[in-house]
Amino acid sequence: MKIKYPGLVEERLPSGNLRYRVRPEGNPKRKIRLNVTPDHPDFVEEYLAARAGAKPVLQEDPAAKSIPQSIEWLAIKYGIAMDAMVKSGQMHPATRKQRKWMLERFCQEYGDYALNMPSEKLVEYRDTLSATPGAADNMVKSIRAMFVWAIERGMAQVNPATGVGKINRGQGGAKPWTIDDLKTFRKCHPAGTTAHLCLTLFMFTACRISDAVRLGRQHEVMIDGVRALRWQPVKKGSAEVIIPMMPPLYRATRAAPVIGETYLLTDYGKPFRSPEGLRNRLRKWCNEAGLHGLSSHGIRKATGHLLAHEGCTQYQIMTIHGHTQAKTSEVYTKGLERWRLAADAMKKLEGMEW
């Protein structure tokens, strides 16, 4: 199919290859040669530069300095692809950041290895990270994802991470906050403080920290005369959350001395730039209250357990937490629902003559 751009000239060389040149706007006698063809992602950028009269600069392939078909060579190409996926919304920036760091670390040890490295070598490297099992498993996960991407594009034939198991048995994840923890935090950080608003926001929305940094009055809606919060969680695969805005949260948001784009603001009255910034701040607030080893996700867990204790079903908790799979919320209700079913069943025997 012929490509039509103003001033673009397609020329067939004696070799049979096509060459593309552009006449700068206002100077039809001049032709500037492009370094790439229309199927290249930089084509439009080079065309616009040439159309403006600037000679396109040949972009060096970052992977050109690495050994072809090596782990480092693939990691660089995958990194470029991840940047594109972030721009198109196919990958979260936090995922890109973690995988980049993991793969750079892996390349320091095995960057010169060929792509057909044996799985035994990957297991050997994973075991060297056994002191931090969570990081070790994330490393394998990042490598597995890179090779899945490469195999789909014909860059590799075998995924060395396939079949490599996890070593992190887990300790139940984040530690849930207790009622005493919540009271201690609120005693140290009274109403009107950002810390108090932060705890209240987590407690009465069960949101993730990636959503807490962006929630604000723009997410408030009226549904059947009830003020509610409505947002689409950042985490990929999460369902939209629509929940009533409870009075304690409403009061806390209105007690804030500064009104901004988001509910939670820094000491400078600006939204937190990243979830990590709020995470560090919350850790500082917890330390000031004498609470150590607690996190925002622990508040989310505490909310799930409290909802379950108050009789909420697994599916009700799903709607509040934004889960799309029942098994994710089952952790909060499994034991309690079995007890309720048993209790209801045993009531059937109360009137039995024995």
Describe this protein's structure.
This protein is mainly alpha-helical and 354 residues long. The protein has 13 helices and 6 strands. It folds into 3 domains: 8-51, no CATH class; 63-152; 179-342, Intergrase catalytic core (hpI Integrase, Chain A). The strands form 2 sheets. The chain has a 3-stranded antiparallel β-sheet with strand order 1-2-3. Strands 4-5-6 form a 3-stranded antiparallel β-sheet. Helix 2 runs antiparallel to helix 3, helix 4 packs antiparallel against helix 5 and helix 11 (296-309) runs parallel beside helix 13 (326-347). It comes from Thalassovita litoralis.
What's the gist of this structure?
By secondary structure, the protein is mainly alpha-helical. The chain has helices at 43-51, 71-87, 93-110, 119-128, 133-152, 179-188, 194-205, 209-212, 247-255, 275-288, 296-309, 314-321, 326-347, and strands spanning 8-12, 18-22, 32-33, 220-223, 226-231, 241-244. A hairpin with a 5-residue loop joins β1 and β2.
Indicate the topology:
Blueprint lengths: L7 E5 L5 E5 L9 E2 L9 H9 L19 H17 L5 H18 L8 H10 L4 H20 L26 H10 L5 H12 L3 H4 L7 E4 L2 E6 L9 E4 L2 H9 L19 H14 L7 H14 L4 H8 L4 H22 L7
Antiparallel strand pairs: 1-2, 2-3, 4-5, 5-6
Helix pairs in contact: 2-3, 3-5, 4-5, 7-9, 7-11, 11-13, 12-13
Keywords: DNA integration, DNA recombination, DNA-binding
GO molecular function, one term: DNA binding
Pfam families: Phage_integrase
